[in-house]
Amino acid sequence: MEGSALGASVSEYVSGIEVGFVDADGVEHSGPLARCWSEPFELASPVRSFASFKGQKNFTGEYWAATSRTQVGYESWVERDAVTALDFDPAVVALASQPFRLTWTDGARERGHTPDYFARLLDGTGVVVDVRPEDLVDQDAAEVFAFTARVCEEVGWQFRHVGDLHQPYRANLRWLSRYRHGRCHHPQVADRLREVFAEPRPLFAGAEQVGDRLAVLPVLYHLLWQQELTANLVSAPLGTDTLVHLASGGCP
Predict the structure, then answer these.
(1) 160-181 burial, b if ≥16 CB within 10 A, otherwise e?
(2) What are residue 180's DSSP bridge partners?
(3) 87 CB-near residues (< 8 Å, 6+ apart)
(4) Which of 105, 134, 162 is the last residue of a domain?
């Protein structure tokens, strides 16, 4: 949809909101959100740099997203976990960090907010993601998140506030993300794993049915990351006896 397709009520609500962003070519843009909301923000470059200095308490870095095959920045371990979960989500096809900055006037006060991530889903929906542990969401942050959620609703985006991921899901995602790259895929081994795990089997026992365990496990973990194979990642850490089986709709 084009920006002009926004309804009158939507245009009125977002008419005073400006958005600034940097496109994939590094060119800076700014303008009314009512006109710019349909930009491909999932391809945008970060609107600000990620600070890194000696003695800082948070950890910054870049995560290679298999989904978009791009480097995606993070400013804390909580953000790194959040972007890993987005990368693991099969509905996400592309994502970017610090995708734009919103500015608006709240009475006599100028306000601004830069969401942490923007993701694009398979169905074309945009998703704005803010990451902050629940116990660090003060009144100002809560107000900004609520405002951002309303803006997202008006322009047809989703809004997600993500806090700390719960264990053991967090640990399992961190482990499987090590095997997200396509270099871990071996077609013949993958085909055999699909056959073996057509019925639920313990993780190690099934791997050993395919061949040398050390050679097979990286392919098995890659298929779990791809969600061609599935296991319970929420209740307990992955282990030797974790039951693994072919995902629904998979072909043995």
Answers:
(1) bbbbbbeebbbbbbebbbebbe
(2) none
(3) 63, 65, 66, 67, 72, 95, 177, 180
(4) 162
Residue type, 202: P
Q: Does one domain contain both 124 and 18?
A: yes
**What average pLDDT does range 179-206 have in this prediction?**
97
Residues 6+ apart with CB under 8 A from 151: 13, 14, 17, 33, 102
Domain count, the chain: 2
Closest CA to 152 of 113, 94, 122, 106: 113
pLDDT digit string, tens, across residues 124-163: 999 999 999 999 999 999 999 999 999 999 999 999 999 9
The crossing angle, in degrees rounded to 10, of helices 213-226 and 169-177 is 110
pTM of the model as a whole? 0.89
Containing structural domain, residue 128 = 3-162
How far apart are the C-alpha atoms of 75 and 67, rounded to whole Å?
20
Residue type, 118: F
* 94 and 189 within one domain: no
Reported as half-sphere exposure (CB side, CA atoms, 13 A), residue 225 has a value of 26
192 and 220 in a single domain? The answer is: yes
**120 and 68 both lie in a single domain:** yes
CATH assignment of the domain containing 96: 3.40.1350.10
Which helix (H) or strand (E) element contains residue 131? strand 126-131
Contact (CB, 8 A) for 129 and 121 = no
Predicted confidence (pLDDT) per residue in 205-245, tens digit: 999 999 999 999 999 999 999 999 999 999 999 999 999 99
